Amino acid sequence: MVRKLRYLWEQLRKAGLSAARSPPEIDIDLDELEIKLGELEAELRELDGNLEKLKRTHSELTEYLLVLSKASTFFEAARNGATSYQRESSVSSMTREGSMDSPLLLEQEMQTDPSKQIKLGFIAGLIAKTKAASFERILFRATRGNLFYKQLPLDEPVTDPATGVKVEKLVFVCFYSGERARTKITKICEAFGANRYSFPEEHGKRWQLKTEVASRVTEIQSTIDASILERDTVLSAVSYQLEQWTTLVQKEKAIYHTLNMLSFDVTKKCLVGEAWCPVAAKVKVQDALRRAASDSNSQVSTIFQVLHSEELPPTYFKVNKFTEAFQQIVDAYGVPRYKEINPGVFTIVTFPFLFAVMFGDWGHGICILLATLWLVYNEKKFGTQKLGDIMDMTFGGRYVLLLMAIFSIYTGFIYNEFFSVPFHLFGDSAYRCRTPSCSDATTVGLIKYREEPYPFGVDPVWHGSRSELPFLNSLKMKMSIILGVIQMMLGIILSYFNATFFRSSLDVWFQFVPQILFLGSLFGYLSVLIILKWVTGSQADLYHVMIYMFLSPTSDIGDNRLFKGQERVQIILLLISFVAVPWMLLPKPLILRKQHLEKLQGRGYGVLRSSDADALDIDLDHEHEHEEFEFSEAFVHQMIHTIEFVLGAVSNTASYLRLWALSLAHAELSAVFYERVLLLSWSYHNPIILLVGFIVFLFATIGVLLVMETLSAFLHALRLHWVEFQNKFYQGDGYQFSPFAFSSLEDID
């Protein structure tokens, strides 16, 4: 029935008709619908088959008519040329009679001998214009040049009878001598798909045949129109009920597919089905089963019983239109394991924030905010429409874009950038130029005239000064490291809650504890040094401190000291990081091996009672699963995990420097477009140049900064969450809860 409905939809689209928007509700039984669909399919296939035959005949007769019209011109031109040539020859022979140039045998004398006459045959037809050159070349080679070939292009493309497609063609006439030449030319025509048609030599017969073919074409065209009208009438009558039939068949097919998952009980009298159900929906399911038994007048009520299964349940989160897109970002990496901590909750805040760190410009943020508010305002309208791939993806993530825009405005205020232009929004600057013209700001620098810093964000006077790039680079680079360490620490802390919930003390003591100590003793210490340097205003070189912490931990760090006893603290932290690696590697596989051996030693032999025989087969597979343990496999797995974490602690921290790099690139691109396009065109004081410059600036801002940079920052934020954050605690090996619902059925095609 689905196949028949698909055929009806195809015929409807082929006829250029559309289904009714609101089909009338007509109750119809499934068996009746099957009979009706079979009758409709048979009727439409018969109509369609007859229509195809008529169209093929019409195309052949149309080509035949074109051959009769175009090829006649060859013969008419040849006859007129022969008549004028004979007339000229007779006149010239009379004037040249008796001269040395006159022929020894007259043409009339040669024609009196039938044995000396040569009988020429010809073939007329049509060939595709693209094949004409090759066709002529092959004919010439096959007959060794013993043919006369003429062709004439058609004014308009014609429908090919074999394919039904409009093709540009040529009318050709090929004259040959001999039966062998005719056989070769016929085979070549068949190979090239050239359609051959009979062509009488006499003018009267050609005119009569042309009239008959034209009359036949008109008759067939009338029959085709009547057949199309009859087919459209049948399809129009069906179109009002087609959507209703499609929905009915879809639902029935889904129901039967679900019923096929059930199994018979021992008595073969009732069906047994096992399914997952949310705990909160248990009462609703029971009420639905009770109503179904009542509506169907069933004599036996449905039994609903809760089972305790060893199988891992599916994962189900209640999401709304706001949180759905954030959950999809997490699910794209992997569906959370049942009752595992869901990173989607944290992603709602951390994802748009990390995006905004790379995209900080409150002018660009306002542009994205306005576009997103327009999508949110028209969400009911767009939600019922079929959008393109890019538009559908953008509309689905409208609330992600909304938070991304809001956070970008916030970080833009911190960076003090509005299309790369700073504004004095929060008070006066703490610095000023040395001269009134500020001509030496980019060379000598600024002077500080008060102790109070700029109230919020970056001081706008730094823009364009000599210290702008070194200051912002240092600020954003250190800020990226601190944000990265905080997010990675959060991931490790979440692994503690996962291990506690699943009652895995081994993961707490031999995974969480060494990981938090290792990361905190190295990069947590680096983050503390960065904050101390900011607070104290020290000139310490943190590169030197971290490098010589490993190379020469006992040496004096001199002017790079940030607090008293720093050398002793660094030695302790270095020892902690060295101890954390074997702590993470060795104890866990050894303890697992010990537990496995104790379990095997505690199992003994005894007399098997009859009451135990029934449960023996049930427990065998379950016990076998728990008995399987390979120490080498567990040790290699733990070694890989340890190496991955130790190396990842360095690479992941360095990976967060992309926050600094993309923020710098965004600011510099914005400054280039503003200064080298908009301000440069303004300096010419020409309205045309200014208009062109503004258009270039507008398209560059939209195309590069608002589209490409948004996509780039989005992908980098996605990577930071998937790789740097989620790999600290997230398993992602669950499977989605997919309840049976008619709303989730796919389209018929």
Task: Describe what you observe in this structure.
It is built from 22 helices and ten strands. The chain is mostly helical. 63% of the residues lie in helices and 5% in strands. The chain is extended and about 125 Å long.
Short description:
The chain is mainly alpha-helical. It is built from 22 helices and 10 strands.
Keywords:
mainly alpha; 749 residues; 22 helices; extended; 63% helix; two-stranded antiparallel ribbon; 4-stranded antiparallel sheet; single chain; 10 strands
- Extended strand count: 10
- Structural classification: mainly alpha
Number of helices: 22
Low-confidence stretches: 105-112, 610-626
Major sheet attributes: 4 strands, antiparallel
Question: What oligomeric state best describes the polypeptide chains here?
Answer: single chain
**Spatial ordering of strands, largest sheet:** 2-5-1-6
Share of helix among residues? 55-70%
Cα(first) to Cα(last) distance is 13 Å
Gyration radius, rounded: 43 Å
Fraction of residues in β-strands: 5-15%
Summed over residues and divided by their number, the pLDDT gives a mean of 86
